[in-house]
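Model: Ready when you are.
Researcher: Fold this.
Model:
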Amino acid sequence: MKPWMILSAVKRPQTVNYLWPRLKISLFFMSAFLLSLLTYFDAHLQTKSRSALLDATAFITDLCRWPAQTGSFLTASLVSHFDVYEKNKKLRDENRTLRAQHSLTLALAAENNRLRNKLKVIKEIEPEFSSVRVIGAAKSPYQHNVLLGSGKKEGIQVKSAVLVDRQILGRIIEVGNYSCRVLLITDPQSHIPIVLEKSGVQGILSGDNSSLMRIRVVEKTLISSTGNAVHSLKEGEQRPKVAKGEYVFSSGQGGVFPTGFVVGRVVEVTPHEILVQSMIDMMQLEYVQVVKPYEEPVDD
């Protein structure tokens, strides 16, 4: 017979048999309580340790990062300094180029005046402008009209041309007493007689409901940027090639827009159409120039 069988065969006192199950339950609950207590204190200690470690790590990291931040700040300052220097140098170069172009422009203007005087060309009347504040600018490429803060009280009339820095923006289509509405050149309802800078090709520039405009060539006559006819193309004679980057000027035909003002620049040429883009930022309009209507002199 095995030992434990012998022990189990020994008859225990009745009191022990009565207390032993209750004692086991008590010991179980006490062990569970002590285990929970130890677990709580252990977790609390771990949390405090982790917090202390995190604070120490953050302090050390911040302390180690300070020299790097200082170096980054100094580097950014130096880069900004050299960037300003480069921009200043670029502006000086551009200023030098513009001065040279200005001198050339003055020489060409003087030569043009001499030739006009020899040919007895009638001097064109320079249009007069009035500066008007924009009160409702186009906030979207798909919005093709703007509101101006002047109207009939200031002499604004329907069909008056509107310019920005001597570039055509559009024309007045509606006039109130103190405000008016401008139809932009990018609107499909806008049609402007134009002439190209170098090729001399003329046509009608129309909006395309986008930032681009399209030229429809309608004549065979070549016209200069001043609006004067140069010569007509003969039968079989090919039209001069239109180059990308050519400036597009108003031809003055129709009498709505003044002659020789920039409308845009050619950005794409295809066998069927010529695409033009305005150089005016339609989203940043503040003040525009409205062309005053020309009044015929009164004879005495």
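Researcher: Now this one.
Model:
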Amino acid sequence: MNSIPVDLSRLTGLLCVAAPEPKTDLDGEQRKDRDGNHLWVTGIAVRRAGTRKASVIDVQTAAQPEGVTEGSPVGVTELDVSLWEIEGRHGLSYKAASIYPKRPGNGGSSSAAVPTPPQRERGGKAGQS
């Protein structure tokens, strides 16, 4: 399955909406990647820069994201997306090298600055006080 890198500079407001948990198979066993690493899945709300609507994606990692909690801003490294199809079902799968906690305003490619809206003057026409 080929994966496509995601341009994180086009996303903003990454927020953990489902804390990291083990990715399990139908028998409840934690799944592993090809190298034998246990897989984890984290729900992240993402928004394209300059838009209002957010989407939630489940992002898989080969290591447990440390310090990531529900409701916290997060950063993501090396996010890839893959298209899958099994027995007539299909969807998108997201994988990242890492997911880490992020303090608001500490920069990085996954958090764009929010522009300040222009201030409206009160009580009359522009230029009057």
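Researcher: Key takeaway?
Model: Residues 4-101 form a domain with the OB fold (Dihydrolipoamide Acetyltransferase, E2P) fold (CATH 2.40.50).
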